[in-house]
Structure prediction request, 461 residues.
Amino acid sequence: MTPEDAVLRAAQAALGDGDVVTDVDRLESYRADRSTGSAAGMPFAVAFPRTTEQVSALLAAAYEHRVPVVPRGAGSGLSGGSNAIDGSLVVCVERMRDVLTVDVGNGFVETQPGIFNQDLRDHVASHGMWYAPDPASKDFCSIGGNVNTNAGGLCCVKYGVTRDAVLGLEVVLADGRITRVGRRTVKGVAGYDLAGLMVGSEGTLGIVTMARLRLRPLPPPPTTAVAVFDDVAAAGRAVEAIMSVTSPSLLELMDRTTLKAVEDWRPMGLDTSAAALLIAQSDLPGVAGEAEADRLLAECEKSGAIECFRSEDPEQADMLLGARRMAIPALESMGDWLLDDIAVPRRRLAEAIEQIEIVAQNRDVLIGTFGHAGDGNLHPTIVTPRGDHEAAARGLLAFGDILEVALRLDGTVTGEHGVGLLKRDALTSELDDVAIDMHQRIKTALDPRGILNPGKALPRW
Prediction:
């Protein structure tokens, strides 16, 4: 009996009917995430556990027989982090969707990892509470994937990324042991921050089966402010100025290429002649929110905005945010696409935007730039004609050029999408030798047989 056969038998014994799939046509749907530009292999099976104990049984069998395991949530990742490798077992948690506890008094929710971000937000909203992290893909990304990649979102400029919302986790380790890390209290410094270590580890250290997440009271309806620029670098300078005087709950940027892509894909009256659009929100109540919006618009005017206004119409505000969330599918509709994800210090944001435009010219590719400007987190998206292999090759070179821009400007090669397969070499450039050694030691300590998501997320050594 091969190791794969032994693991398959263990999986079929531990899971229910229909929860282990080997049909090749169905396996194809679970080979890759949403990213482009990264390789994907063929798993021998996909398992769909429903409980922590089932995940434990799967990992114990895989560990015993040294079979690689690729954890997977909704498959919405953008770096190849959940791409299968040949001969692997994909452990997909999409059927683990239960909300276990909502504790309003102590401000947290406990949930299984397969629930979509928006479904969790809707659930806790019925209790008068709010879960802050809100990736643009919130309608179809899972909480487990958010934890694995330390996902950000539109509101993270004020409320932080997923790690800032994680109080505790239940994790199954590579050998099948189950542990709970973190705490239930607001404060706590007992021991190393093992929960924080797991967040963003992309399934290379364990599989999360429960997340205890910080909740906040529902905020009041936001005040939305919009600034239009005829120079995208001026918009970048405005961001630095805004963040030096106030803390909006949202501050997003879209350049002309992105605006035009969205308008062509879903016409809504966007000004496609503008070089850039800044969309900001304040969630301070009433007059305070209006004052904060006016304050940030004043900074936009000082930085050269050609038009500034506060949206008094909630429908218009929703439309503008909807346009921002449509950026990726709109650019995707134009051709083959490769999405980058960098972050730079806010003081270097304008410089980064200018250099990305130079990359587009030098490599003769179309690049639409948008992102969470208040965090210095940009998503330059390279679009090339479908099936044009020469253009695609230039796009890959442009992708690498953008990562080099980020590092030159004291930034990072990934702000929120993770390293996955796409950025392992770039991560090696970002980290020093001692940091690389620390990564290797941590991985070896928690996964000595190297079965968990091998070849992902970590620098090459």
